[in-house]
Amino acid sequence: MSPETAKRALARLARDRPGRARTVIDEAVDATEDVTAAADFADRVGVERLARAVDAAAESDPQLARRGDRALTAFRRFREAAKTSGRTDESTPSRRE
Q1: With 0-12 CB in 10 A as exposed, 13-18 as middle and 19+ as buried, what is 64?
Q2: Chain segment 19-55, per-residue pLDDT in tens
Q3: Is the torsion defined by CA of 41, 32, 35, 92 positive or negative?
Q4: How far apart (Å, rounded) are the C-alpha atoms in residues 57 and 30?
Q5: Which of 19, 22, 59, 96 has the largest CB neighbor count within 10 A?
Q6: What is the 3-class SS of the chain, one letter each residue?
Q7: Do 32 and 38 touch, CB atoms closer than 8 A?
Q8: CA quadruple 45, 78, 60, 7: dihedral positive or negative?
Q9: Given pLDDT bands bounded at 50, 70 and 90, which one contains residue 88?
């Protein structure tokens, strides 16, 4: 492993400690229950940060990582559904209006 790769790995570990990973994953799981909460989570925290939290939890807490992975899958489905429907944000009027 190069010194630069090691630095990046250590920086990621510092950002995504297990406690932080749990917080991000728990919030993501809760957000998947409501589309408005999911959109808020995606804007505030981001799906990329959720993915990093899942990676951080993978070795230390596999069960937490699985929950996070399910939430990550849900967020990806939400994104795909928004693309398919043509709606990318709440300001876009629905077809029924």
Answers
A1: buried
A2: 789 999 999 999 999 989 999 999 999 999 999 999 9
A3: positive
A4: 17
A5: 22
A6: CCHHHHHHHHHHHHHCCHHHHHHHHHHHHHHCCCHHHHHHHHHHCCHHHHHHHHHHHHHHCHHHHHHHHHHHHHHHHHHHHHHHHCCCCCCCCCCCC
A7: yes
A8: negative
A9: low
